[in-house]
């Protein structure tokens, strides 16, 4: 089983063979990768997952041919997540049939039934992005999670014009504690704020895209920012 579909209901600290508590390890997804050197660097940094965007209007979008090259040297146990927005079954089938994806991320207006149907076309597990607006209430997120109960996990992102990637932070306190263990936290994260985010939410994983990019160059990752983000996550786990 790949990292993205591991059991997300484990406790923050589990005993090792000596009985001592082992700190929770926050999983890391580096998303919106579009260059082979960025994928290579993500793997070298120990990322648990890489995210590829298959939404043509996005400046981070990649073609099937590009994606095939990007995942060519991805080693076992590093998840390859395909991000889709209101995709057709034919597009899902084309991507999944050619690119070695391990997980689908639905980031548009897909209903629960559509998510399950599209995932069935690909034969892959899926996670659902839940966009958090200023007027969102914790009860709204719980209701959405129940509606999408077949999802392997939920990615919490800031509600912005379009479908994510806006680099905006939302109020982390809105995520109910009962969802935190299944949460992939996104939305405006970077090396400077991810530690606070982890301490507030204790998510299963964190997801970053714009926060590791060269300023003003969407889709072009800054290797120093990537490394700083990973270090900040590991430091937060160690505290």
UniProtKB/TrEMBL annotation:
Protein's UniProt keywords contain Transmembrane helix: no
Chain ranges of the N-(5'phosphoribosyl) anthranilate isomerase (PRAI) domain: 29-231
Enzyme Commission number: 5.3.1.24
Domain of life: Bacteria
Pfam families: PRAI
SUPFAM superfamilies the record matches: Ribulose-phoshate binding barrel (SSF51366)
Catalytic activity reported: N-(5-phospho-beta-D-ribosyl)anthranilate = 1-(2-carboxyphenylamino)-1-deoxy-D-ribulose 5-phosphate
Keywords recorded for this protein, A-Z: Amino-acid biosynthesis, Aromatic amino acid biosynthesis, Isomerase, Tryptophan biosynthesis
GO function term, MF aspect, one: phosphoribosylanthranilate isomerase activity
Pathway assigned to this chain's UniProt record: Amino-acid biosynthesis; L-tryptophan biosynthesis; L-tryptophan from chorismate: step 3/5
Stretches the record annotates as Disordered: 1-21
One example of a Gene Ontology biological process annotation: L-tryptophan biosynthetic process
Gene3D superfamilies: Aldolase class I
Broad enzyme group: isomerase
HAMAP family linked to this entry: PRAI (MF_00135)
Protein family according to the UniProt entry: Belongs to the TrpF family.
Protein name: N-(5'-phosphoribosyl)anthranilate isomerase
Organism expressing this protein natively: Paraburkholderia terricola
Gene: trpF
């Amino acid at each position: 089983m790949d990292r993205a579909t591991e059991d997300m209901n484990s406790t923050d600290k589990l005993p090792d063979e000596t009985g001592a508590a082992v700190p929770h390890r926050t999983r890391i997804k580096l998303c919106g990768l579009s260059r082979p050197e960025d994928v290579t660097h993500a793997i070298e940094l120990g990322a648990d997952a890489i995210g590829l965007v298959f939404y043509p209007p996005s400046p981070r979008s990649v073609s099937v041919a590009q994606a095939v090259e990007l995942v060519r040297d991805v080693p076992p146990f590093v998840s390859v997540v395909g991000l889709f927005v209101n995709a057709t079954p034919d597009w899902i089938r084309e991507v999944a049939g050619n690119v070695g994806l391990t997980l689908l991320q639905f980031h548009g207006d897909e209903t629960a039934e559509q998510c399950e149907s599209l995932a069935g076309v690909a034969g892959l597990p899926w996670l659902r992005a839940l966009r958090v607006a200023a007027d969102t209430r914790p009860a709204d997120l719980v209701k959405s999670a129940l509606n999408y109960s077949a999802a392997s996990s939920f990615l919490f992102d800031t509600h912005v014009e379009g479908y994510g990637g806006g680099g905006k932070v939302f109020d982390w306190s809105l995520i109910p504690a009962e969802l935190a263990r299944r949460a992939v936290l996104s939305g405006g994260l970077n090396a400077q704020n991810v530690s606070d985010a982890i301490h507030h939410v204790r998510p299963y994983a964190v997801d970053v895209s714009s926060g590791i990019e060269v300023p003003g160059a969407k889709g072009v990752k800054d290797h120093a920012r990537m490394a700083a983000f990973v270090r900040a996550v590991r430091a937060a786990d160690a505290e």
